[in-house]
Predict the structure.
Amino acid sequence: MVSPVLNVQDICMDFGGIRALDEVNLDVKAGEIVALIGPNGAGKTTFFNCITGIYKPTSGDVVVGRSGDSPRRINGIKPNLVTEIGMARTFQNIRLFPSMTALENVMIGTHCRTKSGIWGAISHNRKARVEEQEIIERSYHLLELVHLEEYANELACNLPYGKQRRLEIARAMATDPFLLLLDEPAAGMNPHETIELKELVLGIRDVYGISILLIEHDMKMVMSMSDRIFVLDYGRLISHGTPQEVSGDPAVIKAYLGEGDDDV
Amino acid sequence: MNNNIKADKGKRPLAFFSAGCDSAAHALRRSVLVALWFMFLTFPIMVIKVDTVNKTIDWRWMNLLWIGIGSFVLSFVWRWLLERKELQKDQVSTEGPVERLLTSASSIPAAKWSLLAIVGIAALVFPHLAGMYQTNIMISCLTYVALGLGLNIVVGLAGLLDLGYVAFYAVGAYAYALMNMHFQIGFWTMLPLGAVLGAICGILLGFPVLRLRGDYLAIVTLGFGEIIRLVLENWGEVTMGPSGISGIDRPMLFGHKFGVFDSITFMYYIMLGLMILTIFFVNRLQNSRIGRAWLALREDEIACQAMGIDRTKTKLMAFALGATWAGMAGVVFAAKTTFINPASFTFWESAIILSVVVIGGMGSVRGVILGALVLILLPEYLRAFSEFRMLIFGATMVLVMVFRPQGLIRAKRKVYTYMGRKTAGAEHG
Ligand SMILES: Nc1ncnc2c1ncn2[C@@H]1O[C@H](COP(=O)(O)OP(=O)(O)O)[C@@H](O)[C@H]1O
Ligand SMILES: [Mg+2]
């Protein structure tokens, strides 16, 4: 039995009177690819925001830990600490740093794994120089991983949409995570780009041993690559299991085809 | 597609005559309307002149004609310039003439170093060639370069709009004045202390405003600046109130006291040194891990945090390091004028320093230097135009903002090299 790297128990999130998440349970085991699906407005992005510290969940437990380390409850800690622990994310509406170059965007990701401070910056001492060069090499290597090395010095805002999404993945990888959270990574991509993306995600899991939790609407991609799938609807978990189990679940079919099915 | 159409339009031989309109006829009509409107507006002051001695009215029709022709031509040129700017926006690397010159100069090492040497020598001999008056102006110009570079950390790099920057300047100046008055503490001891004091005040201001951004931050910092000034004005027992503190010691060199004239030259060199130090520090900081974190914070606060950057620490660092330079500049200012009062630290000063940063180019060291030179020297050398001085000053600011909204010299992203190779692709501004 592999221990979970992320274990979410009975998490609830209220916005005023609206309950966006209602007692959701979800776990990701080491080396797994888990998908979180559901209709628009189901609360998937809210779930991501809750476990990455952007929102503080109303109740419930979020427990994470690198496999081997002792797990830790992280409810309501700051987003940068969540990233430091080892969960990195991308955003549904791309949030790159537009007027920085692609390489610099990735370099920002290494911030929490590097140390040089004001003194290092000003004195430019040996330690700071070595660290800086390491940051550059590592970032460039990650750009190669997502096939963006030729755009290293291009401003992020000048990249086409699909490449921006891949750049966000490289930036998240730079934080050296054990769990990668991808919010609709294939949105706005053409079928060819989607296949490339799928290979990229599988590669990240296989080569780096990073677990992946992804939100995605492209069913073909989700069904073919995930080990397990969780289905949200109106903030409630309505089904979970292997792709076969979920795709045969009447509750899921109903949620996707609408309430009208009741009468049939 | 759309770009092609636009580009064609730009290349049309008669592009000037259609001046941002669909056709020359349309442009003509609009310019005539503008001219008529201006003739109407200026009619009472420019045409009618009452001769109170002879009790007659002078009708100066010629003036009306000049205004008509002038505004007609200006309207054409104005719209043509705007149109041209629109067209150039599509090209990725539009460089202004100054930027082009700098880029080509810095790409040849020999040219770069000889240019630097010329500027350096000119700066060194300046006080001996120019008079005391000119040297004094130059000192205040250098002060604004240091202040602008300090504020550039807060506004240009970290993107925190600070309208109360002058408060830190005041803290430095008053700290030296008071310490000198009560404890005879010298300039050189106080210079680093002023820096530390500035940094502490920066953090003190930073804490309560951590959660604020944009307009809200601007208003709170504006208030902070005013509070400091009001305290200086009203806390009479300590700060001597509006009458200020006089008789502040000028700096000495290894115990040697200078006369009035020499001390201005000496002050010039101190300020020059401080400015070079500032340029060096800001340059290093900007291209470091911390500088990148500031940029990321400016671009997208949420993404920045999600990438593991501590927002609190990064913001406080920006406030503290920005205020450091203001604190030091304040000490120098007090030593130079030997007299300070709260009137030197009004919101107007903050506004000028901010203008230096914005007009020069946010986040660009070279831009801020040029900005300070233009904004401080322009009003001085425009004294020949007496009453039109501030008008020209204002018009310059408006023109820069319309035609170069990113400032005179835009910030340039550093090109990193890896594995001994230069990264592929050209530099981007
Ligand atoms: N900050 C917020 N304040 C109020 N309501 C919110 C907030 N964020 C999300 N919601 C609501 O929560 C629900 C789930 O949204 P979201 O998580 O974005 O859905 P999706 O599954 O499409 O990602 C929506 O009804 C949305 O309006
Ligand atoms: Mg969403």
User: Anything to note?
Assistant: Chain B has two domains: 2-90, 117-415.
